[in-house]
Amino acid sequence: MKGNSKPLLKYMEGSDTRFIIPVYQRNYDWKKENCKQLLDDLVKVVIEGRPSHFFGSIVSSTEGSDNIIIDGQQRLTTVSVLLLALTNLVQQARHHEIPR
Q1: Closest residue by Cα to residue 38 from 75, 86, 85
Q2: Where are the chain's structural domains?
């Protein structure tokens, strides 16, 4: 098995990339506290001006454009939901005039 390192957003990019969670994986079970810790860590990265944050390892197997997730499902799912929430927030702000 060959391992390699790549930034999370680079790993996730591409409209034709799919992430498959095998049925033997445990269910998503991060609680509010886990999500808050991740968000707090990311805010700290910005405040401290660090160029990156170590999210932990994601272990996957590639089959075509599919990534079969072996380990890292909780983080990958949470980051995906966070990115979706931020995208929705930006879109809502663009559609509503900001009061002065």
Answers
A1: 75
A2: 15-95
Residue-level pLDDT, tens digit, the chain, 100 residues: 667 777 888 888 877 788 999 998 888 999 999 989 988 998 999 999 999 888 888 888 888 878 899 998 998 999 888 888 888 888 888 887 555 5
Task: Decide: residue 15, CB within 10 A, 0-12 exposed, 13-18 middle, 19+ buried.
Answer: exposed
Beta strands at 66-71 and 18-20: parallel, antiparallel or unpaired? parallel
Both tokens assigned to 21? 């969670």
> What Cα–Cα distance (Å) separates residue 13 from each residue in 1, 35, 56, 94?
23, 22, 18, 24
**pTM (2 d.p.):** 0.75
